[in-house]
Amino acid sequence: MPDEAQPTASLPSLRSPELTGSALPGPALTDLTLARAEVDRSAHLRTDEAWLAAAWADRRTRVLVVEHGRVLCDMGRELARLAFVSAESAPDGARFLLGIDHEGIVYFGVAGPLPEAPRETVRAVPLREAGPLLSDRDAGLMTHAVALGNWHETFTHCPRCGSPTDPILSGHARKCPVDGSEHFPRVDPAMIVLVTDHSDRCLLARNALWPERRVSVLAGFVEAGESAEQAVTREVREETGITVGSVTYLGSQPWPMPQSLMLGFRAEAVGDTEIQVDADEIAEARWYSRDDLQVAVESGDLRLPPPVSIAHRIIESWYGGPLPGSW
Ligand SMILES: [Zn+2]
User: Fold this and answer.
1) Cα(48) to centroid of ligand 1, in Å?
2) 202, 315 contact by CB (below 8 A)
3) pLDDT on residue 27
């Protein structure tokens, strides 16, 4: 779950009428902040060693260095920009092909120590901070690079025999030189769901680990051997005692912090809608009408997750208009 404080936007007093409504399924979520991309991943070139060597030697090639989930960004303008380095000045580290843009420029990532910032406005930032401020091209490149960087930093050894593994497929897999086994980036699917009751009120909860007033929709990891829809039903029941009927998929967003993929859903409560929280996980939970939510958010009684999160976008899709995120 996202937990970084974000700048607070002003809350519009009017919701856009065409978006307000209770009809299910809600509009599919599009333009999620970290689900944007412009660069072609060019997977077919990942095994073409001659092409990869030529691309690395091309002076136009740009390299994004990633270390512990951070990259260098120029934050000096309204739209932040990734600060690339040339291939020859890139540090040693696991190298991965990020793709080719529409101008034919090739992008690589390297998991290694961040270079020195070339200007005062350039600094090392995490995805949560930079993501909302980047163009589609840069948001996609950074999300891809951070996900692979996190994996290369962590999964360095063979799970079968313990030997150090080597990157293959231009950094999109690793191979054990001893037993030949191949290993692919780990992605943990997690579901996140906005539950509504018979009056189209939505269920918001505060995780037991969160400070007062911070709430979101319910979320949890999909377990082994379980579908995402089953995870929705199970988590909602475990955490709040509510049984849900129809479960509708809304969209997904990578959340490589370090390695999740968030699958967004809406679900309708059936039967008894009295909430019984699992106190180990959930400190409090209740149903909110749109007016309840507007009043609570405007007064500061509730703080919603930041706009970079799919949670925020799911809540807005139900509410029918923009809401401030203030974690
Ligand atoms: Zn091995």
Assistant:
1) 25
2) yes
3) 52
